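Recap quiz, item 2
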Amino acid sequence: MNNVKTTVIGSYPVNVETMELMNGYFNQTEVSWDEHIRSAVNDMVNAGIEMISDGQTRDPFVNIFTRKLKGCRIRDRTEIIDKVEYDKPITIADQKYVKSLIPKDRQLIGLITGPYTLTNSSVDLFYNDEKELAFDFAYALKQEAQILQKHVDMISIDEPFFSIEIPDYGKELIEIITKNLTCSTRLHVCGDVSKIIPQILEMPVDVLSHEFKGSPKLFDAFKQYTITKNICLGSVQSDNSRIETVNEIIGHIKKGIKIFGDKISQLAPDCGQRTLPQDVAFEKLKNLVKAGEKIYG
Amino acid sequence: MFSFAKEQEIFDISGIKIGGQPGLYPTVLVGGLFFKGEPDFDTGKKQLQNMLDISKKTGNPAVPDFFIRKEEYIEDITNFIESIVPKSHPFSIDIIEPSLKVKTLEYLDEKNLLSRAIYNSIHVGIKDEEREALRKHTPEMAIIVAFNPKDKSPDGKIEVLQNGANLTDAGLLDIAKNLGIKKILVDTAAMAPGDNSGASIAAIPVIKEEYGFPTGCAIHNVVEKSKWLDDFKSARNPVDASSNINIPLFGGDFAIFGSIANADIVFPIIAWQDILISEYTETYFGITPDDSHPRRKLF
């Protein structure tokens, strides 16, 4: 599979033994998170995934970023209490660790939660201006992306809130992050994007990623447009524990090929797999890889 | 000096009051017994009596904190509590291993000791069997340890109380309340030197202002873990004991001060600090100290 790569969207299930964390507290020793990253990465490697992520095991995808950006604090949700600014690398150390774990023939995808999603997932107690907050998130994330590009083969921006609404400045937000990056880029928008396809196709990224398995009507919606971007084809559901068979996935990919032809550059789950049982997530990845190999060799 | 805008909870356990605005009630001092493992009951009895005597002199309530590290010690230690701790006096049980927590709760219930018991502690490591035991054998009061391995700052401590930092199915406060625990103390989780240790002190006023629950910590743990103090051996004990003054100074309500053997030095230090605080808070905030306050012993 030289031209079409199997990959992931982002998060992977994590099983934390919280008593181990407490024993670290009682003994006043630092408890490493490496075992959880390793567990996710090993599953991806063993399933045969070609482009691997860090699994976003530390936190939900919003908190990973807002925990380390200035101006944010986490209560029930993230609260914005001051100007949002970049403070220090957020995901870089984990990416370096993942790189040390994976075979040389595998690639690495860096994950960034998009500025519009961070904005809409937060309680704004400071700006009272959604646009200004979103732009400050974008500028902060740009700094992370500039460092991240040196360590990964692709950067994926996860913007699920675009499926609800793309603001008129949505493209600008993405452009702030992707402009002048030397690695390739992907925009992942899960949910129903059928009404925003024209705006999505204008986004300054190399690959568009959507949940085609859970929302097969997207095939019909995309059929109406000339596809100018490469496509990451969501091919197994992330919100359903039923494990798709290899044949079922093959059938799905063939449908995708009818619409997108050689524009399909990646096969992936529909979304992050964090909420699935780990064994289910693993089996889905294995079947995804098998199906991809059957079609693309 | 602090006075909180948030209404402050004041809890009573066997006649001991804990919580409220700074300067109102004396700092409650929690001294540990049997933390080395095998209990020495003769020494423990003397140390307990000594702590209760000095508590009477200073006015600071004393709570003996019983470490239980092995199942074989549970019966003897709970017998000791039943027979040696004065009948009207509270105590706490300090246990790490979840299965020992469950068994100890059963023993305390059998001996009708739960109404005087402070459960030390509920934290993100809570197990299903522990929840079940707490529902069935609910202690009068529980300490919640606000340890958040993802964020050791005061904000991180609030996060774990509020939503469990995505490590538990709910925030630790809700977990405790849903188990039927009505009297909650918050321990701000002192960390080792160099690991955001000061946050446990800084978090005290933050948590009291946010929730109003009685709050404190085991700041002595920071001193205990210090390697730097190895160069100043004679200073270790005074530094350990005096580190506790940070707790009432930052508005805290209780200090888990380490070994009960240190009661002789810790109680007068904290009583003195309570007096200083009370002199200010009464003048500035109009907080009249309770009759039990150390300041009443001085004047």
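The radius of gyration of chain B is 18 Å.
The first strand of chain B starts at residue 10 and ends at 13.
End of item.
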